[in-house]
Amino acid sequence: MNLIRKDFMLVKNKMLAYGFLCTFITLLFKLLIDHTVIENALVCAIGLLFSYFNTIISFEAEGKYKAGATIITLPYIRQNIITAKYLSILLINTLYYATNLLLLAGMYLSGIDTWSGKGILYGVAGGLIVLSIMIPFFIRFDYIKASNVMMLSVMLVGVLIALFSKKSTNLNEMFFNIFLIDAKYLCFISLLIVLLSYLISSNIFLKKEFNT
Questions:
Q1: Which sequence spans correspond to the domains of the chain?
Q2: Interval 149-197: pLDDT, tens
Q3: Residue 59: pLDDT above 60?
Q4: Whole-model pTM?
Q5: If you placed Cys at 183, which of 12, 20, 121, 138 could pair as Cys (CB 3.0 to 4.6 Å)?
């Protein structure tokens, strides 16, 4: 619990700001866009972005204050340290999505908008996959190296999508078909990916050496 509290104290101000911004943009999309699939895709994309910033900021704070090197000098088991890191990031993600769902439910009950929580569920699944990919890199490498790898990966994905969109006439159809998959199945698969990521990160962290 102390380790989770430590993570919250390090990131709370930035994550409140990013959470407010992402939630505001999500509400705008819900109010201004009538096409359900496009709306779900954009809401999902904002959720992925929040998960990306959540993970980046968590490890940025640790790198800035050298918390990782300090914590291992304290009487904590390394397995507990990595467990707390995952739980703190997942808990912040959960709070963000719970807030969004409550706001969407409020909009639905007040008659402002129709109920459609699919975009949020796709965002949950996608966000879990994003942090599952990112965390092992930040555990293995220092913050600067890992963040550079993440930024280059995001740029590479963007370039590949742009290239395929020019050459493939079926890309848009494939993109829309993704959002026809049952979100519950995607969430279940993403939880399995989180578990795999946790095992990989634990193995890396148990063998990692720190310069204290």
A1: 2-207
A2: 888 877 776 676 666 655 555 555 555 555 556 667 888 889 999 999 9
A3: yes
A4: 0.77
A5: 121
Whose CA is closest to 22, among 65, 53, 55, 1? 53
Report how far apart, in Å, the C-alpha atoms of 10 and of each of 6, 59, 139 are: 6, 10, 17
CB 202 within 8 A of CB 82: yes
Using alpha carbons, list the distances in angstroms from residue 189 to 101, 169, 210: 21, 29, 34
The answer to whether 10 touches 62, Cβ cutoff 8 Å, is: yes
In this predicted model, which residue has the larger pLDDT, 107 or 54?
A: 54
Instruction: Measure the CA–CA gap between 162 and 151, rounded to whole angstroms.
Output: 17
Tally of residues, the chain: 212
